[in-house]
């Protein structure tokens, strides 16, 4: 059997497990929050392991008594119809990101229903994933039949109650990916949602967000999505997700949401939230690139999981998460990305396009979906 | 001159009309310049639409049939040598052919050929020859790596099983090119017979390979070699052969090893001869890029992991410059390390000159007396030197503890100091340890760049410590002193950890570089004090560290304590030092302030604090920990930014007290500036890579986790990296969102401006701007200067000079234009530019429209092909310019590179039983392929294999790189997708086989062998197949009928027992359909209490108590989890082809002559049926009375009438004869018989006689009749004559009368 990697601490927990599954190498993580007041694995991490166990077949997980060390021996990805109740400590995005990374490599097409918090302040919301990560996933899986995502219900922290359906086709291998020119932003779309609060909140957020965005582009359209509560399950909350779409099909996203109820923080003002989201979107635009900063790592993962061919992408500055991800990726697959700052060409010199961009190049590891059945 | 003119003859003028012209025309035959279709278009018109459609369809079919899915061409620029394997049964002339080929290519005679021989055989072609011996293991391995197989066949004998076996192996593993070679043709004396034989063999070969496969004939031997011309031809074919990519090999890198070297440390060998070895394998990388540190499989040995890889200069390079068409003799290189030729061998760090080859004087050596060499050889045999022997001596400190060897103590040694002066003039002392420690040192230096101050004082404690180490020998030391057992190097390590603690607690000492140098001076003066202070400090922390190992929970308080102590010591003991420090810091601060201003960074020191907050831990992480500063130092830019960072660090602290004083102006725009600064830093692209990956080794160490070294079985060295990680990033919050990203305030107009051109509403790139493009278009029209081609008429309009002049005049008159065209040079340049632009536009236009046939849309296939080509080009060009060292990190080792692969934990048998004639392959495994699971293959028993295969019988499988033994379970898929298990493989049908084995990509070929033993007759390959699926569990079912009996029956309901053993089981089967033997169907309803496992069931009809009820179920069969790699290479030479794994049950029984015990119940016995004796039928009298007469039983047959025949005969008495009477009677009988016999005879004779007599009578009668007839004839003739005469006479009379 292959040798195991040993890691310490809870950082990049998801990435380590996901890569472990994809590479088939067992891992051992020790000293998880040994110094913490609340030592060991948290509920949401345990939930994540359970979710992985559902997606895979033959996974072995050993957790020590205090939960400060785990041994994870991955099985094969099977997929199929799955339902999972996510922990409300984290958003569904926390789980869905990893699920999306694994989904194309299952044995059977994945059809998963996740329940929990759809939008919160911490994790990438499901709306953002749908708007940004989906177009990227679509580029990797050759045709997008069966690639689908639906937000059935919204749920805000702390009680959640949201539900998301995600389905993804299975591929033997992905397509190579070269995306160097993001184009120019042609329109901005968005959703302002309000759960169990007055619908006026949504409109107020839209107003303030538009106020800033209309300064740069006239094509701004933000829908409002007001949901009534589902019984006593959910908790009130509202927020806004903004998406910028470019002429070449790149998407950038930013979001902002209200402070959760009973969090000890003062209640948020919708105008502030709208403005904050718009500001964040502009910041994201300032960073630029062909993929959003949230999706950098997933995109790079798919690039690495191709045949032994060159893939290339331009991004904005790498987020700390991406940098950590790249390191972990190298541990598992031995892939190193060639990273270079994009040199501005002569004609671009005096354009005001935000900060310098980064070009990442890699050769795939020759990964094929080992669990898919051939006819 | 004049004469010449006049002398000139009048030229001939050809007639175009008139008689002569016509005549000439008549001479030339008329030539048809129209095609048939043009002349007679009707003949070519579509008559039948259907036919035309069919024709078109067929044409398209043929076209698409030729198309293959385009594959990305991954062949490298300089490909590795092609592997040519010479295969065949023994004694067909493989070695001779190999020798001849080598001689043909290199003009060298190799006396002894062992292992692969690489040769430069052409300008762009290298070849590795390998001879394959007759072992099936070798054949399998060779088939996996060979690009071309020369299949040798003894023509005098014909094809042998080995040939077909090899062909089958090839087929499974991708089918490399195969060329047949017939030898021993001189055996045939008769030419006709030879021809016949050739033809026969050729056709058989063609059916096996493909029609028209190349078959060579080596007609005879001359002086023990094949004929030169024939070998030359063969060689030519080899050197121009083209290959198509094979699926497995274009996805998996591999190295065909041409040399290996055991680099196990001799002391390990000395300790244990059979310890696992560290081995270096050498060879060319083939296939695709070989990644360092990846998992590999060595067929015949097992799965291993590459410890390290390095590329070496090519030992057999292609000629660099070609001056001539053919190779010069010098360029005809040969590299055969195991055969002992090839001269120089390049290793990673050394060059060896191999003298053991053809030029060595082996014989002489042998001639010399052995005693002469004894001393030298014994020295060579020495496994360990004196120093090593010393090294092996041990010291035990405590009775329970493991003894400390000097190997442990190695790390006690003082590191040698390597002084490096960097660009700023600072002296950095690189401690050079034995390799392992070195890394740690480097790490520390990276981390603690800013803490050199502490280091320097602490270094002084070394002297103290050395004293302590001296006392180490004293066992009377108390636990307090346990720290002293550490040697200096470790002590230093420990101290560094303390330093960090110190820094945390007392941050005021964090220095900048300049400050540092000053401090160093100060510290020189203060040496002694510091020494004392830190001594106690150090000791304390050492204890802390040792405690840390004991228990994690204790860790925290201990460290805090340590901090406190360190703080205290610094504060109390260092007053003097402190004063001086303050002075220095102040001075530096002022300087720094200036510096900051100079750099136009208006952010004050205090401001940077906020910056720090906003940028978050991210920065601190990058700037302090992960950046490999040692490398960066040379980079000025990086240095500066780092400096700033440090400055900020320091200022931050220093300004804590001063904050109240300074105004709040700096706070304006802070976030904005911070963000800008952040992005600026990331933009320094050269270091981006280092920022992510750090120096390669460093992070590797980190990932390896904490491999804590143990010393003397007592103490552990906590590695620095882990401690550091503990403090900062280990438990960082796991979130994709860049939550603490620096954010600018875009409500400000100036900030908003910075992204203005990201939108379509902003400025576009010149090349994309529509306005610009339009303008350019117009320009280019002008630029044409009036020339244009009328596409419709095909005329080319040119502007006359006059017009041109007009245009230029016009231009001149235009003031703006005039201004721009300052000189002719400018004008020319501009024109050139415009032409270029035009060309570009035209190119783009062409690319879009013209290239496709008929201007139509590009076909899907073409597009795909183009895409693939583009990808291939990109693959080639992307890393082209890079240095090999870096390139290797990005893309792995390219095929064609000569590499050295270091692998540890190799079984010692691989080295000790190494035999160069067996191919050695290092095949890389892709991610996931190192795992084990249930593999499902579609399998078919080979037609030529005699017996069918039994399920769960061991089978040796070759799949991917691996050869292994496993226990397959056969199954077949039913129509409802259920896998039904089979006991045996079907005879001529595919079935599924599932076994526990290595996970291999789907579609990989698979080959199964029952026994490796070559002595067994028959075809050894028992089955072939391909991988379909893999999983971690299986669903193979077996039919199972559960039987029960009813114990109570109510109408259609019955209670049934004996089918299940518990009600739980019943619950599982509720609703299942059941059936009685008589065919009445029913359903299981519900379990009942009383007899456990019984249930209520309903049926379609009433059943009887004697019925048997059964339910049909499916039972999951487990696949045995057995997998063992074939380790044929580990066996000694004589047993290499006799690897034996698990035996079949049958084999074992046969060997031990165990017979299966027969269950007598299962035996067939003759069926004995007793004759049934029925009681006589008795009809009751009352019944009889009622019966009609006919049916009434008749009592007796009536008595015969007296005097009747029956009566008389019934009354006759048997006569018993006396003996005499009997004799008489017998005689009478004889006489009577004789008489009748006689009568018979006489009668027959009489009949015969009568017959003859009758014949005679008949004949005489006939005669008589004949005579009478003749007489009659005569008479009647006479009569008729007379009549006629009478008539004549009468006639005459009548005439006369008239």
Automatic annotation (TrEMBL), chain A:
Gene Ontology cellular component list: nucleolus
BP GO annotations: endonucleolytic cleavage of tricistronic rRNA transcript (SSU-rRNA, 5.8S rRNA, LSU-rRNA)
UniProt cross-references to PROSITE patterns, sorted A to Z: RTC
Domain RNA 3'-terminal phosphate cyclase as annotated: residue spans: 7-339
Pfam families: RTC (PF01137), RTC_insert (PF05189)
Cellular location(s): Nucleus, Nucleolus
Keywords: Nucleus, Ribosome biogenesis
InterPro entries: RNA3'-term_phos_cycl_insert, RNA3'_phos_cyclase_dom, RNA3'_phos_cyclase_dom_sf, RNA3'_term_phos_cyc, RNA3'_term_phos_cyc_type_2, RNA3'_term_phos_cycl-like_CS, RNA3'P_cycl/enolpyr_Trfase_a/b, RPTC_insert
Domain (RNA 3'-terminal phosphate cyclase insert) ranges: 180-285
Any GO MF annotation of the entry: RNA endonuclease activity
Family the entry assigns: Belongs to the RNA 3'-terminal cyclase family. Type 2 subfamily.
Name of the protein described by the UniProt record: RNA 3'-terminal phosphate cyclase-like protein
Organism: Artemia franciscana
